[in-house]
Amino acid sequence: MDRIHFAREGAFYATLRKRVDAALAEAGTPKDGAARIALKSLFCLGLLAASYVTLVFVAVPVWAKLLSAFLVAQSIVLIGFCVMHDAGHGAFSKHRWVNKLMVHSLDLIGGSQALWKYKHNILHHTFTNLEELDDDLDTNGLLRLHPEQEWKPHHRFQVLYALPAYSLITIHWIISDFPEFFGGKIGRHDAPARTPLATAVFLGFKALYVVLAFVIPFALHTWWHVLAVWVGIQLIAGFTFSLVFQLAHVVEGVDFPSPLEGERRVEESWAVHQLATTVDFAPRNPLVSWYTGGLNHQVTHHLFTKVSHVRYGVVQPIVEETAREFGLTYKKHPSVMAAVGAHLRMIAALGRKPAEARTTVTATA
Ligand SMILES: [Zn+2]
Hints:
The chain is mainly alpha-helical. It has helices at 11-27, 34-57, 62-88, 96-102, 105-108, 113-126, 158-166, 169-183, 196-220, 223-249, 270-277, 286-291, 298-303, 312-325, 336-351, 354-357; strands at residues 5-7, 185-186, 189-190, 265-269, 280-281, 332-333. The strands form three sheets. It has a two-stranded parallel sheet. It has a two-stranded antiparallel sheet with strand order 2-3. Strand 2 (185-186) and strand 3 (189-190) form a beta hairpin. The longest helix is centred in the N-terminal third of the chain and has 27 residues, at 62-88.
């Protein structure tokens, strides 16, 4: 992979890290999620187990079946946001083996932790909002999510089809995992090397998923009922995952920095780059913070990936205050609806033909 390099870190990130370490020590809280995230995970996994069992095995009225399907979708979202994401970053527990175990919760809901760690931890977190490197911006041309992406006539309508298209993301993950894992390519990038053990784990979990999602339900229910419910669950989960990812990086006011002319480096340091390309939303809404696993505090998450989301209440005010002190802009939208509006305006601006949109999509906020 032809990487892009950042400028040397200045005093901002060193000061910030020192302050965050001191505040966590003073509050007597570890960086990992410890008992708090263990309890939350029990709830998320318990909800999945209870709703799945009711949906597949228990004779209940249709409305209860539909409610169970909705709760399966919600538990998939909660496991993704609150369990797998922290574990993937090594923030779930101070014990490596616990993180390694809990990140497999992604395999349980149909994804692949091996591919996720590469796409999310490396491509997205290191090269946030940099075209060709941040995997979150790559939709194979379906959407134009960066000013440097090639414009195509269908992008004029992307503001209309973006939200429905987001619903397809988990189905896309489940299917595209196979060519990515065995083809050795993730978009334009080489996938991580495959070991026999990684292949066995990948295939083992995929087989388990097929058994849980299709083989057992097909044995007990009408086949097209099973398929319809599975698609419905995926559409709800996919829409929620995608929207939350987009609200933090593809919104009005965010930066899409470019490498310096003819070079493979950007002007700012990595930490300053994260502040420029990342936005918080609904930061004072405890329900949103709980449901999204702290992804509404995305700035804090990007600067402190090794700190569990259950600690963001201590960390976030320090990040905001230190950024202000160093004259850096800390970006946030006050509510989910404000962030959705800012996202749709950005999608609409990126969908205009570049010559027409030059005044609306700018490289700097
Ligand atoms: Zn992350």
